[in-house]
Design a protein that fits this description.
The complex is a heterodimer of chains A (about 45) and B (about 140).
Chain A (H helix, E strand, L loop, with lengths): L1 E2 L2 E2 H6 L1 E3 L5 E3 H4 L5 E5 L5
Chain B lengths: L1 H11 L1 H6 L3 E6 L6 H8 L4 E4 L4 H5 L12 H12 L16 E5 L5 E6 L9 H8 L5
Parallel strand pairs in B: 1-2
Antiparallel strand pairs in B: 3-4
Classes of the chains: A alpha+beta (about 45), B alpha+beta (about 140).
Chain lengths: ~45, ~140
């Protein structure tokens, strides 16, 4: 599925990491409900 | 500092998102070891992740380059953030990488998409909350 020229499958397969260094697939964020995902520029 | 100000603002409104049954997640691009510091300085208690590869940023088409840092609006926002008490820390992640936001439905469709145009141009909390109510933005 693609929306706004964004591949949702590819996006969902990306792994981000928690403070405990646990990998989290982005698709898990919205698999059970609406997710508001804010991408910040950097941590500084 | 603009990033810290943005996350602090999200921290203030955290319950507004949970009240609407939405899962709020903040994703940065720095090293995992810096997540705790960001949490400490912003008071953000929600989910905090990082994508050091910035693959998600690229897939979403978020701007990366010096153009997003040089605008007068970005400079003005920087001064306002300083006045608000958000002093700059050591930059963790790519300084050239801008962010944005998505609101995803459980079926994998995008409800809301915002791409920052320059440093300090953040998705509006009110706009995101309105999107959760199904209002056009």
């Amino acid at each position: 599925m693609s929306q706004n020229n964004i591949s949702i499958e590819e996006l969902g397969s990306v792994e981000a990491y928690s403070e405990q260094e646990k990998p989290v697939r982005l698709a898990e964020l919205w698999s059970e409900g609406i997710a508001v995902v804010v991408f910040v520029r950097h941590f500084g | 500092m603009l990033c810290r100000q943005q996350v602090a603002e999200l921290a203030e409104h955290y319950t507004s998102f949970s009240d609407k049954h939405a899962r709020l997640v903040v994703i940065g691009s720095g090293d995992v070891s810096h997540l705790k510091e960001l949490r400490d300085v912003t008071g953000y208690q929600g989910e905090l992740l990082t994508d050091p590869s910035r693959q998600s940023f690229r897939l979403l088409g978020f701007t990366s380059g010096v153009g997003g840092l040089m605008g007068m609006k970005a400079i003005g926002r920087g001064f306002r953030a300083l006045r608000a008490g958000f002093a700059p820390g050591a930059i963790q992640g790519s300084a050239l990488q801008l962010g944005g936001a998505i609101i995803m439905n459980p079926d994998g469709t995008i409800r809301y998409l915002y791409k920052s145009r320059e440093a300090g141009d953040h998705p509006s909390v009110q706009e995101m909350l309105a999107a959760l109510e199904g209002k056009a933005t």
